[in-house]
Amino acid sequence: VADRIAVMYAGRIVEEGAAATLLRAPRHPYTLALLKSRASGALAKGTRLETIAGSPPDLTALPTGCAFADRCRMVQDACKTTRPEISWLAASHSVRCHRVADTAA
Ligand code: SF4
Questions:
Q1: pLDDT at residue 20, as a whole number
Q2: Which H or E run includes 96?
Q3: CA 7, CA 28: separation in Å to the nearest integer?
Q4: Closest CA relative to residue 102, chosen from 87, 92, 90, 91
Q5: Is there an atom of ligand 1 within 6 Å of 29 CB?
Q6: What are the pLDDT digits (tens) for 29-83?
Q7: b/e per residue, 60-80, with b = 16+ CB within 10 A?
Q8: Ligand 1 centre from 73 Cα, in Å?
Q9: Any ligand 1 atom below 6 A from CB of 99
């Protein structure tokens, strides 16, 4: 069992931290979407899995801003023009998202 998890999108780590933290309180929109798309957990029979619309970007021509912008439900203008820097939420929990403040539970 892993102690730490690094979530990668388009070749970059977008969230990293203790496994328990990322599974219980994820903060990057991609991590949140991934966890909603898994079958394990409390899905009742007949419940549809959530999917992440769209496709990953071409790794040889990454967008200027956030690589997840075309698929993100929280995208805003700055996401398309400026690559997000790392935000440290704790000494061992980092997230790369302009809107990390808006993903707190
Ligand atoms: S930076 Fe913007 S587009 Fe990228 S994950 Fe965060 S909210 Fe979504």
A1: 95
A2: strand 93-96
A3: 9
A4: 87
A5: yes
A6: 999 999 988 877 656 777 788 899 999 999 999 999 999 999 999 999 999 999 9
A7: eeebebbbbbbbbebbeeebe
A8: 8
A9: yes
Within 13 Å, how many C-alpha atoms sit on residue 105's CB side?
A: 7
Cα(45) to centroid(ligand 1), Å: 32
For ligand 1, whether the C-beta of 65 sits within 6 Å is no
- Does residue 71 sit in helix, strand or coil? helix
Q: Which ligand 1 atom lies nearest to the CA of residue 76? A: 2
pLDDT band at 3 (very low <50, low <70, confident <90, very high): very high
* Span from the CA of 90 to the centroid of ligand 1 (angstroms): 20
* Span from the CA of 65 to the centroid of ligand 1 (angstroms): 9
- Look at residue 103 in the predicted model and tell me its pLDDT: 94
Question: What's the pLDDT score for residue 97?
Answer: 98
The secondary structure of the chain in percent helix, strand, coil, rounded to multiples of 5, reads 25, 20, 55
